[in-house]
Amino acid sequence: MEKIIICIDGSAITPAVVGAGKWAANKLAKPLCFLHTIEKTNQHGADDYTGSIGLGARSSLLEEMTKLDEQRSKLALQFGDELLESAVSEARKTSLEAVESIHRHGDIVEALIELESEARLIVIGRKGVGHDNEFKAIGSHLETLLRKVSQPVVIVPEEFSAPSSFMIAYDGRESADRALQKVLDGGLLHGIDCHLVAIKNNEPDLKAKFDNAAARLVERGLNVTTAFLEGNINEELVKYQVENNIDLLVMGAFGHSRLRQLFVGSNTLKMLETVDIPLVVLR
């Protein structure tokens, strides 16, 4: 059964991530699955210091270091168990009965790829432990995750409340059309005011594609406001979002080739660094 997978790590952003996941679960009538991973940087018990003996290191200190690492690994496991138990308990208090949890060792992206066949939606914070006070900090796994998974990903900032409006950033390219189709087919954003926004670019017949996209949204029953603008893509999108109090942004993931992104950057990542609202990335 398709699930809403919520990635939690106990950082300050966790309550917002959980809130976004519960909102999505209610909107889509899907079960929740909380995921916590203990990554290698958090589980040092397997470290091997025996090679230091030949360098003259004191074996008693090495033994103590090994014991500390083993204790740290046990505490990380206990913390994860308690975090998941608390999240499941809180979710069930809000009438969400179909709730489960998964505890994994290893990389969060690898865990999500393994679980993707069970996922309807992935919810994750824009940053994790170690970056709580840095607005522009982006979780080290996000770009890799967005490139490797095909399911929609909701990226949550420090705060979350149920959105009353959303904006689709439309550029006429294939990735934007795929994102538009997922909005049309899904139910997550239905019933919420929609703003379809395009920034003039070199895409052939962009205006015609834009008008067709708007017509399809209206036909599906969405309340649509359109804006066809000129200027810098990221600056104009952020300006429009602020001026119109948009609560949530929808984008297609990585519309350009990796080579081009190497030189001109990625609009997806730039928006992640700039906006302080939830971002839904669709492939």
TrEMBL record:
Gene3D superfamilies in the cross-refs: 3.40.50.12370
Domain UspA as annotated: residue spans: 2-157, 212-283
Coiled coil location: none
InterPro entries xref list: Universal_stress_UspA (IPR006015), UspA (IPR006016)
Superkingdom assignment: Bacteria
Membership in a protein family: Belongs to the universal stress protein A family.
Protein name: Universal stress protein
